[in-house]
Every structure is written in structure tokens, then in C-alpha cells.
Amino acid sequence: MDKPSSYSVAPSDSSRQSILARGALVGVVVVALVALVLVFPKNDLLSRLRADNETGDRELTISYLRNLVRTEQRDVGLQFLLTEKLIESGNLKEAIQVLALAKELASKDHQLLEQWNALDTQIAWSEYRLARDAAKKSDSAEDAQRAESLRSALELRLLGQLARMGTANAGFALLTQTQGIGATALTRQVLQSMAKLKNASLADLLRAGREALALGF
Q1: What is the mean pLDDT of the chain?
Q2: How far apart are CA 208 and CA 211, in angstroms?
């Protein structure tokens, strides 16, 4: 007589079998997520989805957000959240596609456009890091050239952010990015622009001064 299949719940039991196939399990979770829509207000639900940072949760969140984006095609917030999750998962190709869907609506609102630009820059950063790391591992001239091309393109994006910089906080965030790609001249420009900000506090100016001294400017 054949030995019956094991349905043990013990993780160490190598002979155990899943009661549900993975596809069926995902289906059950999606149904549960749909139920959440009926129970929680939309903003509360999106906050919960935004907080799903573990890999397993993120995969399910992305699947759910894909379906939401299909049904709520004019909801830029959903498109932004899906883009964020895709970037976190390393799926940059789809992140670019989803962000492109949001561009038309985002361009009609200044705040939404700023968020769009921030996500666009985040994608560019991710592409650059991947290319830079690949170039270090391969020691290939072609990979190094691609990494440098992406770095130069990223520097142009940051230059555009400098032109729109209106607060000291935005300036400090930009400083971190310019230093991250070794853009010394652009870093100097950011510090000079921060010194001219009319809404900068004395504490902001002192902090910018310390940054300049530390960098040898």
C-alpha cells in the first residue's frame, strides 16, 4: 500500500504537501484584498498597501494594484503607488510603463508633476546603480560606457531639479543625490543656490555652510 501524502504543517517536514496550489492561494489572497476594499476606506487601504514592505506581501500588493490601476485608469495616486512598488521589486521596465500612464494627468497639476518627476528620477537612479554595479563586476568597457551615459543623464535630471528648487529641504535632498553621482560642479551650484533662498532659515544656511566646508568649497 502506498504511503499516504503528508499534510503536516511542520516546516521541517520535507514530505509535506501544500493543501492549495500557489495559484489557488494567490486567488484566495486577492479575494481577501477585494474584501478589504469593501471594509476599509480607500485612503486607509492605500496606506496599508504602501506599508507592505516584505517580499511576499509586496508581490501580492503589486498584483492587487495592477488590477486597481486597470479599473481606476484616471487615479494618478494608484499609478504612483504601483510605480513605487515596482521600483522596490526591481521591475524597472514595468515601472517606466506605469509611470508613463500617469504623465498626462500629472502634468496638469504642479504637485502631482513634482511627484511624477521624483519617481522618474528614482527610476533613473535605480537604472544607474544597476549599470554601475554591473560595470564593476564585468570590468567591461561597454558596461562602463553605459553606466557613465546613465550617470550623465541623471546629472541632467538633477540640474533640472536645481532650476525648480524652492526650499532648503529640497536643496539638501538634491545635495545627497549630486554627491551620490560625484557631480562636484553641480553640488557647488546647489550650495550656491541654497545661499540665495529667501525662505531659508539661519539653521538651514549654517548647515549648508558646514556642508560646503566639509566638501572643501
Answers
A1: 79
A2: 5
User: Which residues are registered as beta bridge partners of 6?
Assistant: 16
pLDDT, mean of residues 49-63: 68
pTM for the structure as a whole: 0.66
Partners of residue 109 on adjacent β-strands: none
CA 89, CA 103: separation in Å to the nearest integer? 22
Burial of 17 (0-12, 13-18, 19+ CB in 10 A): exposed
Cβ neighbours, 10 Å, residue 144 = 16
Mean pLDDT over 64-82 rounds to: 87
pLDDT digits over 125-177, tens only?
999 999 999 998 888 899 999 999 999 998 888 888 888 888 888 888 888 88
Which one-letter amino acid corresponds to residue 154?
L
Residue 14 host element (H or E): none
Instruction: From 96, 74, 68, 72, select the one nearest 83 (Cα to Cα).
Output: 96
* pLDDT for res 158: 87
State the sign of the Cα–Cα–Cα–Cα dihedral 105, 107, 108, 113: positive
